[in-house]
Amino acid sequence: MNKKTLTITAFALFSLFFGAGNLILPPLLGFKSGSSWWLVVLGFCLSGVLIPLLGILAHARLQGTLFDFAKKVSPTFSLLYCYLIYAISIALPSPRTASVTHEMAIQPIWDSSSLVTSVIYFALVYLFVINRSKVLDVVGKSLTPGILIILFLIVVTAIVSMDFDFSTSEMKNPLSDGILEGYQTFDAIGAVVVGAVIIVSINIKDKAASYEAKKDLIRKAGFWAGLGLFLVYSGLILTGALFSDVFPADVTRTALLSGISTETLGGTATLFLSVLVSLACFTTAVGIVTGTSDFIKGQFNDSNWAYRITAFIGCVLGVLMGQFNVGYIIAVAVPALMFIYPITIALILLNVLPEKWASPRVFKWVVITTIVFSAPDFVGSLGVGLPSYLYLEWLPLAEYQMGWVIPSITVFGLVNLQSKNSTP
Fold first, then answer.
1. Rounded distance, CA 2 to CA 12, Å?
2. CATH of the domain at 41
3. Are residues 316 and 402 in the same domain?
4. pLDDT band at residue 267 using 50, 70 and 90 as cut-offs
5. For residue 256, what are the CA distances in angstroms to 114, 266, 358, 368?
6. Nearest to residue 284, comparing CAs of 84, 100, 40, 68?
7. What transmembrane ranges does the database entry give (predicted)?
8. Are both 411 and 304 inside the same structural domain?
9. Mind giving me the DSSP string for 78-91?
């Protein structure tokens, strides 16, 4: 492994993570948090940086596919989990990238329809996906540096030019609000999806690389990509907090980012922001469609036709869903995230633990517990009325929609303790 390979892989990882949600969510969080912006940073980066980084570390250890993440629960569960993850990915975050690109990068300059934007956008995504052997090089060498330069200009200009005079926070629980908003980045899901993309890409580029060499490369690249995400999120949240008295309280996510860009970069704001949004969203869409196509290809005996057909279907679905506005797609995503995110977090954490603490039995009982105790939050997000006792409000963290955490940790400890005591 040389420094050039590490740099390209780290840049590619960062860029595949950094998409529409990563760009538009942090500024509004900071805007609402005011003086509590640092608590929001901690929460947001916990679910949007630490958990995804652990997901990449798990991939470095497994060096398999998404199926390997959940197979210790059972092969059937793992297959269902994979299909659900990929279905959510191509139905929500991938189309959202096209919607954000249209609202922020295309519509302000050209008065064209979202359909035209989506068709051109996903045609380009398809071209990248069917040339997947070049994904790492193109994304890592060309697109990511452009994203970082433009973000740097916006954040640094805001920090240098603004007084550090924050408004009072309107958030009651800034830490938990940051954690839950971090769900909307889809980064934990992104970790298990694009982590597999990175592994396949590395295998294509260097088939002779050893397990240890690939593990070292992925772990180091994941660390640098995670550090980059942390700095970017912190900068965008702080920037939003600095502008908390500048824009109206009901400002939308896209309008706030556009306004901040105009205030910091002046007359060049529209051009810079258009480039930034397009690059950030495009790379994420490529990663999602590529990951989904890789999985379906594996289900059909490595058929290239299955890969191409899946990529085409994913892009067509992106065009169709991309007709909805950003706010609608984010709202629709909430129930899906409340269901799949706790399971994904549990699987990531179990996969980074030593084998002696994460046996198939531990996997099975922890995941079952996570599903059971996160179910009330999922049902509640659908707007279905339930008796209050079913919401398990007595559980620690339940008021923050994380009532599944303590039960899952407790079951993890009990199953390990029971296994240890039963060992002769």
1. 16
2. 1.20.1740.10
3. no
4. low
5. 21, 15, 44, 41
6. 100
7. 37-60, 72-92, 112-130, 142-162, 182-202, 223-243, 271-293, 305-322, 328-353, 365-392, 398-417
8. no
9. HHHHHHHHHHHHHH
